[in-house]
Amino acid sequence: MCGGIQYQDQKIYFPQPDARIPVNLRHGGVTWVIWGRRKEEATGKFPNGGWARLDSIKMGKWKPWHPRPVLIPADCFMEKDHEKQSHWINLAPGIAIQALLAERDGEQRVYVVTEETPSEYNRIHDRWPRLRKLSAKIK
């Protein structure tokens, strides 16, 4: 499900309180947005977790948070297997992780969009971040 990302030699893990991950801006820059919501957070404006299933987005379950597709520029991402072993997966140049930018009451959070795992990685996890070309229009 993508429990961590590496961007420019900086590793960010979802369990870190107030973890922020990079999001590409339309003009080419990057901004840092809080990654999802942890169960221990006091406010309940956003769904728990740091991931959004692609099928739930298509079904409209994210509409209350005014979702916008965004890209996370990452060098690699981390998945843990069933034995809790970490696997870092390198991304090819020009490939980014698709995410959903959620908004509520002037606050934003970002959630990694997940889909079925490619068959060569089924041994690691059953959900996988959706990967897109940086120049591609995202849907």
Give an account of the 3D structure.
The chain is mainly beta. The protein has one domain. It has 1 helix and 12 strands, in the order βββββαβββββββ. The chain has one helix at 54-58, and strands at 4-7, 10-13, 20-24, 30-34, 51-53, 68-72, 76-80, 86-90, 95-104, 107-116, 127-129, 131-133. Strands 5, 6, 9, 10, 11 and 12 form a 6-stranded mixed beta sheet that branches. A 4-stranded antiparallel beta sheet has the order 2-1-7-8, with no helix packed on it. Strands 3-4 form a two-stranded antiparallel ribbon. 25% of the residues are buried.
Which helices and strands occur, and which strands form pairs?
Elements: E1 4-7, E2 10-13, E3 20-24, E4 30-34, E5 51-53, H1 54-58, E6 68-72, E7 76-80, E8 86-90, E9 95-104, E10 107-116, E11 127-129, E12 131-133
Parallel strand pairs: 5-10
Antiparallel strand pairs: 1-2, 1-7, 3-4, 6-9, 7-8, 9-10, 9-12, 10-11
